[in-house]
Design brief:
Length: 178
């Protein structure tokens, strides 16, 4: 994404680019994952980002690195001691790996979420209202989250080239939404 190339020392464009794939229900390509890894170098204290990176590390088989990434979040003062991330770190500590670890992540309902999005079950039920998302379409709450992020950036900048790229990506996702 052009915004990432123009502003390689700003984490937000990397995060938004990565989130755009999660929002659309698509796997992130290598470039988006590489950008996420760059973002964590720039913002290592950002807890939500640490979760995203940790889950990506698990999916690539780097479980020990994932544990190091997730532990500060899992044992943060901001979460209860029995939170899902603490349970995941405990599973890593006892040696759970591979498919069993993936199953535990699913059981604990740990997901890579969009940066600013908060789920709205009513708006994300899908076209037939059956509670299932429409394949290839971004959930409404995720698009709202991306629009919110765009608006926050716009307050700081007067439509820079980076913001125009982010804006185009949001519009593309909105068109897919229908």
């Amino acid at each position: 994404m052009r915004a990432n190339r123009l502003s390689p020392d700003t984490a937000l464009p990397f995060i938004l680019f990565y989130d755009s794939f999660a929002t659309a229900g698509q796997p992130a390509p290598k470039g988006a994952i590489d950008g996420l890894m760059r973002a964590i170098v720039l913002q290592p204290a950002y807890l939500d980002l640490r979760v995203k990176v940790g889950l990506e590390l698990i999916s690539s088989g780097q479980v020990e690195s994932a544990r190091e990434m997730l532990a500060p979040v899992a044992f943060s003062d901001h979460l209860p001691l029995d939170n899902p991330l603490a349970k995941l770190v405990s599973e890593i500590d006892i040696g759970t790996r591979g498919v069993a670890l993936d199953a535990k992540i699913a059981e604990l309902k740990i997901r890579i979420s969009s940066l600013y999005a908060q789920p709205d079950p009513e708006s994300d039920k899908g076209a037939d209202g059956n509670g299932k998302a429409d394949p290839g379409k971004a959930p409404a709450h995720a698009l709202e989250g991306l629009r919110h992020a765009r608006d926050r950036i716009a307050q700081d900048r007067n439509m820079s080239p980076e913001l125009r790229d982010i804006d185009a990506e949001i519009d593309k996702l909105a068109k897919q939404q229908g």
